[in-house]
Amino acid sequence: MDRGMNKVIIIKRRTRLEDLKKRYNTIEQAKFYIEHLGADFTDYELEHENYYASLNLVRIIATRYARVQEVDRDYISSMIFGKDDVVIAVGQDGLVANVMKYLNGQPLIGVNPDIKRWDGKLLNFEAIDMERVLPRIFDGNFSEKHITMAKATTRDGQVLYAVNDIFLGVNNHTSARYTINYNEICENQSSSGVIISTGFGMTGWHRSIMAEFAGMAKAFNLGNFKIPEYAWDSKALTFHVREPYPSVFTEADLVYGTVTEKDNLSFVSNMGENGVLFSDGITDDAIDFTAGMEIKVAIAERFGRLVMN
Question: What number of other Cβ atoms are within 10 A of residue 16's Cβ?
Fold first, then answer.
């Protein structure tokens, strides 16, 4: 296949060994620290070797079919993707999800660099599979799964997308104070924050919160509670208010709900400082949620395209 105008962007991440080297300046010092704690340093080395063997193979194969650009995960928030780019994330599930929220219709391939180490629900391929997968993608002959995203928009035009979930709250352990408006029903609230989950994110933070609810229901003899789940492409979000505190000024009735394309969900901050909004656990790409800031949350107009085979 002629490479033509094909372009592949490979997203990589640092290994644990590279993180240790960054912290301790040299591999030798990192090894001394790990072995001093009684841990096996060879596992860090093996993981590193396997990761780069996989990454290098992906690079070699991709170069045969396209122009290749390699980007570290730390820079994806400022990356401008072309509409016809094909994106390959080499890493774990979290990397695939983090990359997806910055895409706008580009097909995304998840590559498992170490199948003996990572399960990878989003990692449908190994590096060698790129030999058969890339030609099919450029020919438009591949299967994919669509993933619904969430979108938060501020009154001053800032936008944040999420593949798994959005967190709205504070950046420390104090209480978040805000006004929630869900389909014209309003409450002043004080809580540990609000989680808005996609169908894809129902197995993440959402599941943790619902597991606590199910345990409480059982403890109070309310019977077994089945945790709800939605398909990855479901046009619905759910929101949970964490640890709401009722008081003279705050309420705790509006704590859970579903947001479809017909629903409206918004928040206004009542906090002078420390309010924050971030998605998918990435705090470096956050929006300040301070006094008077209004944020509307809805189903995004864009969606993820995960290559399946």
Answer: 15
Q: How far apart are CA 156 and CA 165, in angstroms?
A: 22
Residue in the structure block whose two tokens are 């479809």: 260
Q: Is 193 left (phi over 0), alpha (psi -120 to 50) or beta?
A: left
pLDDT of residue 210: 83
Q: How long, in residues, is the chain? A: 309
* Mean pLDDT, all residues of the chain: 92
DSSP state of 91: S
- In whole angstroms, give the CA distance from residue 33 to residue 202: 38
Share of the chain above pLDDT 90, in %: 70
CB environment 169-202: b (16+ within 10 A), e (fewer): bbeeeebbbbebbbeeeebebbbbbbbbbbbbbb
- Counting beta carbons within 10 angstroms of the beta carbon of residue 25, is it exposed (0 to 12), middle (13 to 18) or buried (19 or more)? exposed
Q: How many helices (H) and strands (E) does the chain have?
A: 6, 16
Within 8 A by CB and 6+ apart from 99, the residues are 11, 73, 76, 87, 89, 108
Give CA–CA dist 106/222, Å, rounded: 46
Helix (H) / strand (E) element for 267: namely strand 265-269
Closest CA to 97 of 122, 129, 134, 69: 122
Given a cut of 80, whether residue 4 has pLDDT beyond it is no
